[in-house]
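Because discrete structure vocabularies remain unfamiliar, we first show an illustrative case, written as a sequence plus integers encoding its fold.
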Amino acid sequence: MLRCSPRWAEKKYGPGVTDTEIKLGQTMPYSGPASGLSLVGRIQSAYFKLINAQGGVNGRKINFVSLDDGFSPPKTVEQTRSLVEGEEVLAIFSSMGSAPNVSVSKYLNNMHVPQLMALAGTPKMIDPVNLPWTTTFYSTLSLEAKEFAAYLLETKPNAKIGIIYQNDESGKTYLEGMKARLGSKAASMVVKEVAFDLTYPTIDSQILLLQAAGVDTVFFATVAPKFGAQGIRKIAELG
């Protein structure tokens, strides 16, 4: 006699998925010096609420858990582990920053947890052999910097360039991309390079160093809106 149990008919899903829910995780800098970037996470949360209000995705509501990592890789690791091992999310979606995303990429791939549309511009994240569970959202910062360099070579080939760069994965990627595209002209065109940390209150002193070096063109190698705005304002004050 064939005996059937209701549990045999239950659908089997992986972590983060039920018949009624899809659970996604994310880390964002809701606090700290890069908190201006957290607007992205707030917009994404609002969009998912809109989707849920319209019935969700094929009947499933999106449970979006977005945690604060302060743009600090150690905190990103801690919060991502909490999302994967505690919240048991299906995937990490669109977390912010090159260094934060790099810090968890190997862990997520080893755990076979998708790292989807990572907001990271470092080429290190584009590695389908070693990071097959990782995808990024936009082109690399090095490619972006190369386009800026190409523009300068075409429109201002005698520019005296000062580069002020964020002293982390993002800033250094920008810096390397710019100098790579300038090629043999980098030595003569790049007059001064100065770094800053996200913990700095301002970059006024860095702008003054560029001015003293005779710079007439400034490349802001940063993803933090705060410092770009500060730099533009200081340059205007200095005329």
